[in-house]
């Protein structure tokens, strides 16, 4: 393991993150970010007891956890960027949760793209990353870099099978039933405007309408942490 990889491992562990890997992002990051051919994808588990309580919508505990985990993600990714800079590499910490394009409801780059490319999971019918250990009960962080990191094998197939629990659970009918594969357009899986509107209209007191998680809670791959 090279010096900067060892340092990334140590920093990641010191922030309590136990699942991360490297992604080949050649051709995927565009515009100002086009020189970053590699990504480091970080997965933070959300507290299962909090996630279990989201069947009717967000709770105060979820709202607090959402903010705390975003701060932890941003602290970790900022430190990893500094470490890469010290070894002569350029890097960019993708914000944990910034909608930089409000018209199209998008961020600068997608954490889920980095995560599937890093082999950490697939995008489910709930339009979220499902990891094997914790399903979608996670939040994600990403560092983009030009450092020559050895990328993991990407995941390119959904493992949702015939399950439709998240689709049935969504009160906004925002989940469209489409299955993910790399490059599939978002609208096939999710009507982002329907989801956004529902949260703003019904859950405004939780981060101004940025929290919901009913479909996340309904996922059997997330719930399996209670069946161990
Ligand atoms: C804008 C936004 C929203 C919008 C739009 C959501 C969306 N899917 O686009 C709305 C308001 C609807 C929303 C809702 C929620 N969000 Co939100 N949101 C974002 C944000 C800030 C930007 C997303 C974006 O750019 N979307 C544009 C579209 C095109 O991309 P996408 O669906 O995110 O990802 C696509 C690509 O990744 C692609 N893809 C995957 N692998 C590959 C590989 C290749 C080669 C290619 C070409 C493409 C590709 O597949 C995806 C589907 O098409 C991200 C943070 C970020 N920068 O990623 C958080 C993020 C997606 N949100 C998150 C969460 C948790 C939520 C909510 C549960 C709300 C909450 N916190 O309570 C709901 C869930 C709604 C749902 N069912 O998906 C998490 C998801 C965690 C996870 N397990 O996946 C993120 C990643 C934040 C984080 N730091 O963890 N969100
Ligand atoms: S976050 Fe809520 S409104 Fe959005 S898709 Fe999931 S269940 Fe539906
Ligand atoms: S609830 Fe079922 S269909 Fe939805 S994301 Fe989870 S496994 Fe996939």
Mind explaining what this structure looks like?
InterPro entries: 4Fe4S_Fe-S-bd, 4Fe4S_Fe_S_CS. This protein is α+β, with helices and mostly antiparallel strands and 228 residues long. The protein has one domain. The chain is built from 8 helices and 6 strands, in the order H-E-E-H-H-E-H-E-E-E-H-H-H-H. It has helices spanning 3-14, 48-51, 60-86, 111-117, 165-169, 192-202, 214-217, 220-223, and strands spanning 19-24, 38-45, 91-94, 122-123, 129-130, 138-145. Strands 1-2-6-3 form a 4-stranded antiparallel β-sheet, with helices on both faces. It has a two-stranded antiparallel sheet with strand order 4-5. Strand 4 and strand 5 form a beta hairpin. Helix 1 (3-14) runs antiparallel to helix 3 (60-86). It is globular, with a radius of gyration of 17 Å. The two termini are 34 Å apart. The model has no long low-confidence stretch (mean pLDDT 97). The structure holds cobalamin and iron/sulfur cluster (SF4) (2 copies).
Topology:
Blueprint: H1 3-14, E1 19-24, E2 38-45, H2 48-51, H3 60-86, E3 91-94, H4 111-117, E4 122-123, E5 129-130, E6 138-145, H5 165-169, H6 192-202, H7 214-217, H8 220-223
Antiparallel strand pairs: 1-2, 2-6, 3-6, 4-5
Helix pairs in contact: 1-3
This protein binds cobalamin and iron/sulfur cluster (2 copies).
Domain 4Fe-4S ferredoxin-type: 151-180
InterPro entries: 4Fe4S_Fe-S-bd, 4Fe4S_Fe_S_CS
Protein name: Epoxyqueuosine reductase
């Amino acid at each position: 393991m090279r010096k900067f990889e060892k340092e990334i491992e140590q920093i990641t562990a010191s922030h309590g993150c136990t699942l991360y890997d490297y992604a080949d992002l050649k051709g995927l990051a565009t515009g100002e970010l086009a020189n970053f051919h590699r990504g480091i994808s970080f997965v933070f588990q959300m507290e299962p007891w909090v996630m279990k309580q989201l069947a009717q919508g967000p709770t105060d505990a979820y709202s607090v956890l959402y903010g705390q985990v975003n701060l932890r993600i941003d602290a970790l990714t900022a430190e990893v960027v500094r470490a890469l800079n010290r070894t002569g590499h350029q890097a960019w910490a993708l914000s944990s949760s910034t909608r930089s394009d409000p018209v199209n409801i998008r961020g600068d780059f997608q954490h889920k793209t980095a995560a599937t490319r890093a082999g950490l999971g697939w995008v489910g019918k709930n339009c979220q990353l499902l990891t094997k250990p914790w399903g979608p009960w996670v939040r994600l962080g990403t560092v983009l870099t030009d450092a020559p990191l050895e990328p993991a094998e990407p995941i390119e197939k959904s493992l949702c099978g015939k399950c439709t629990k998240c689709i049935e659970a969504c009160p906004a009918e925002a989940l469209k039933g489409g299955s993910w594969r790399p490059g599939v357009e978002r609208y096939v899986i999710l009507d982002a405007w329907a989801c956004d509107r529902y949260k703003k209209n019904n859950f405004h007191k939780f981060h101004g309408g940025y929290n919901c998680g009913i479909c996340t809670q309904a996922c059997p791959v997330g719930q399996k942490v209670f069946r161990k």
